[in-house]
Amino acid sequence: MTHIIVVGNEKGGSGKSTTAMHIATALARMGQAVAALDLDLRQKSMARYLANRAEAQSAEGVPLPCPTYVPLPEPREDEPADDRLSRALEGIAPGTDFVVIDCPGSHTSLSQVAHTMADTLVTPLNDSFVDFDLLAKVDRDGKVRGPSIYSEMVWNARQARSRAGLPPIDWIVVRNRLGAQKMLNKAKMEQAVGELGRRIGFRAASGFSERVVFRELFPRGLTLLDLRDVGAARLNVSNISARNELRDLMRTLQLPGVEIRV
């Protein structure tokens, strides 16, 4: 069966589209058949990323492994979000191994439905308590006092899957924009994320550090895995470290039938 990966977070600027694109491309490079949906109807960052990638292939003359973009169909009159998203999934080619769904940085009915469909939920989170507030309420010392609105939405999605007899969501919270130095805030964030994960049932993972390269990749439609293909004979230390971060993330996801070869 097709495995659905939803990349969701109701706060913008957490690196959702970058994370979604790198996961989808890594899977494609490992020989998996991958489809991609973008539910952000305003910014369409992942759709634009994939369009940039198509242009890059033409300009560079190099074939780049790529997920198949599946556009969201136009809504029918009074059509509920679950029907519209189901129609999109029906358009996915038979034999597709994975579908990666990039959600908007806000609460929408489409995003809520996508969460109930997730086999794996990836929530990128900037490594700060400003963003952590999306997941939990904390006191002045950074101690967790209870789940916040997004965590409650994921809980509702889990309950809906349980009632439908579906397997539970494997939820991974990915800490992005990690600082290189061992700062007090970083240590407190690690403790708070770990505590909350044990309380409400997610796994914590380290994502991508703050790097200039990600700002350069998007307009070119490239990922960290493409640099050698487009003529970067030697990768600098930052590029190699970023590739290692992606490899570690793919291992942490523990996706079925995937042998890590990136």
UniProtKB/TrEMBL annotation:
Superkingdom of origin organism: Bacteria
Leader peptide range in chain numbering: none
Listed InterPro entries: DNA_Partitioning_ATPase, MipZ, P-loop_NTPase
Coiled coil regions, renumbered to chain: none
Cited Pfam families: MipZ
Protein name according to UniProt: Chromosome partitioning protein
Organism: Hasllibacter halocynthiae
